[in-house]
């Protein structure tokens, strides 16, 4: 409606804060005033005269220049009872979402769990609103970290046999490797490659089990080792060389990523001939695109932020637009118990695992808590609050509202009352009823916002607000 009134303008709309007049507001007057060097309030007062529509009851200019819009009650209720509650916005667009993708070197941590909750929620919502969305897990089963895993397990095997053992300095020191070592001994594994293959398979299976326990199921599991067998790594390297996007320095091969906005060029082949992580990762993303996914979403932890420009540059160097890849960075999680933060390190063996958390806290509570903050914000997971059965716990608050709604519906059915929507909605007049109707109508808007901004935290915020309105 506003786009029709002001064609060509970029219009941002948001909900009016509680206690203010109206349902929605826009800062359009500020944008126009900046262009024409006018006063925002004066511009807003002129603009309100141009906003006319049957769905609107009032439009007002508010200091210092906002335009507040109130929706007509009749239109609001008609929309509530006649329009689909789930919008269709995807129109079958193919999107591949890759998330979690932790190294098969240990259990799923609480930090990984946040990426799992974000990715799984995002994929499910995108599927609901019409996107052909695929969830994918990338198994990093090649490279130096896997060699370190094999060496670490081998040392633990020696330890169990009573021999002197020395886990590599940059290896994996957690006691969880003792279980892997015991099984390797039971299987009479001695060869380093056999130990490596067994350990990788062990952790992949355990990670799958943990994620399924968490309600997260992936459509695809793709191995880095398989990508390396496709020839795409060599293809990417040859393409970068042909386009003069590489150079040698001190025996290493560099990719000119600064030409794509990176702060420094990146090594893709080390002086001893090993591929760095970036080269096969570019090949993996080319593999995604060739599987008919023109739009890619990766969900990473904050420690991978510096990798974005290099990977995006690689995709662009292969001839694809910059917009092909969107990387969503999910910030750290700190687990808090009795007012104290837990220290976490997979290599040091002090990791807080998702399995341990799920042994104490129900799955739905864990997922809800991990979605309560924006992906760009650090998150404190308060274990004491998560276990509390009171309205202080937002999950308990939302679940209690849901139970009350079900109870009311059941009561109505027992009394022979219809719970269908084919009734005269003009009888809905009370302010509290209208407020609840408005809250319900924000559901499809919330779903669109989640897919547009890739921000699943909108779901938890919406549910809390809806429970409050009820």
Automatic annotation (TrEMBL):
SUPFAM superfamilies per the UniProt record, alphabetical: Anticodon-binding domain of a subclass of class I aminoacyl-tRNA synthetases, Arginyl-tRNA synthetase (ArgRS), N-terminal 'additional' domain, Nucleotidylyl transferase
Ranges for domain Arginyl tRNA synthetase N-terminal: 2-71
Main location: cytoplasm
Domain DALR anticodon binding: 398-470
Keyword set includes RNA-binding: no
Record keywords, A-Z: Aminoacyl-tRNA synthetase, ATP-binding, Cytoplasm, Ligase, Nucleotide-binding, Protein biosynthesis
GO CC, alphabetical: cytoplasm
Location relative to the cell: Cytoplasm
Catalysed reactions, as listed in the record: tRNA(Arg) + L-arginine + ATP = L-arginyl-tRNA(Arg) + AMP + diphosphate
GO MF: arginine-tRNA ligase activity; ATP binding
EC category name: ligase
SMART domains referenced in this protein's UniProt entry, alphabetically: Arg_tRNA_synt_N (SM01016), DALR_1 (SM00836)
EC numbers: 6.1.1.19
GO biological process: one example: arginyl-tRNA aminoacylation
Keyword ATP-binding applies: yes
Family recorded in the similarity comment: Belongs to the class-I aminoacyl-tRNA synthetase family.
Annotated protein name in UniProt: Arginine--tRNA ligase
Source species: candidate division WOR_3 bacterium SM23_60
């Amino acid at each position: 409606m506003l786009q029709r009134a002001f064609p060509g303008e970029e219009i941002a709309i948001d909900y009016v804060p509680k206690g203010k007049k109206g349902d929605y507001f826009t800062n359009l007057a500020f944008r126009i005033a900046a262009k024409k060097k006018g006063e925002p309030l004066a511009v807003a007062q002129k603009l309100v005269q141009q906003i006319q529509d049957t769905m609107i009851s009032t439009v007002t200019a508010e200091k210092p220049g906002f335009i507040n819009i109130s929706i007509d009650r009749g239109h609001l209720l008609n929309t509530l009872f006649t329009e689909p509650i789930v919008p269709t916005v995807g129109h079958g667009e193919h999107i591949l979402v890759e998330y979690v993708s932790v190294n098969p070197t240990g259990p799923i941590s609480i930090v990984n769990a946040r990426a799992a909750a974000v990715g799984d929620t995002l994929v499910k919502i995108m599927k609901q609103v019409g996107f052909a969305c695929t969830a994918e897990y990338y198994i990093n089963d090649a490279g130096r970290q896997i060699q370190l895993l094999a060496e670490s397990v081998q040392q633990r095997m020696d330890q169990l046999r009573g021999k002197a053992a020395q886990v590599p300095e940059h290896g994996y020191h957690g006691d969880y490797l003792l279980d892997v070592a015991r099984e390797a001994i039971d299987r009479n594994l001695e060869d380093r490659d056999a130990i490596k293959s067994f350990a990788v398979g062990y952790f992949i299976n355990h990670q799958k089990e943990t994620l399924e326990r968490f309600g997260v199921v992936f459509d695809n599991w793709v191995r880095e080792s398989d990508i390396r067998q496709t020839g795409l790594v060599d293809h990417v390297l040859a393409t970068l060389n042909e386009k003069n996007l590489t150079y040698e320095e001190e025996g290493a091969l560099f990719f000119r990523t600064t030409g794509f906005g990176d702060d420094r060029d990146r090594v893709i082949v080390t002086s001893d001939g090993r591929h760095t992580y970036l080269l096969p990762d570019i090949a993996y993303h080319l593999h995604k695109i060739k599987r008919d996914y023109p739009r890619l979403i990766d969900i990473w932890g904050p420690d991978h932020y510096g990798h974005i420009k290099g990977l995006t540059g690689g995709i662009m160097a292969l001839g694809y637009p910059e917009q092909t890849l969107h990387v969503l960075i999910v910030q750290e999680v700190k687990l808090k118990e009795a007012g104290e933060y837990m220290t976490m390190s997979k290599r040091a063996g002090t990791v807080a695992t998702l399995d341990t958390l799920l042994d104490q806290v129900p799955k739905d509570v864990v997922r809800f808590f991990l979605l309560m903050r924006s992906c760009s914000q650090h998150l404190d997971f308060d274990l004491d609050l998560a276990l509390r059965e009171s309205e202080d716990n937002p999950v308990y608050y939302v679940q209690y509202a849901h139970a009350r709604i079900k109870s009311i519906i059941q009561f109505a059915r027992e009394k022979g009352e219809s719970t269908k929507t084919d009734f005269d909605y003009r009888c809905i007049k009370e302010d509290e009823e209208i407020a609840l109707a408005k809250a319900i109508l924000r559901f499809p808007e919330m779903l669109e916002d989640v897919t547009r901004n890739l921000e699943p935290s909108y779901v938890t915020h919406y549910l809390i607000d809806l429970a409050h309105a009820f």
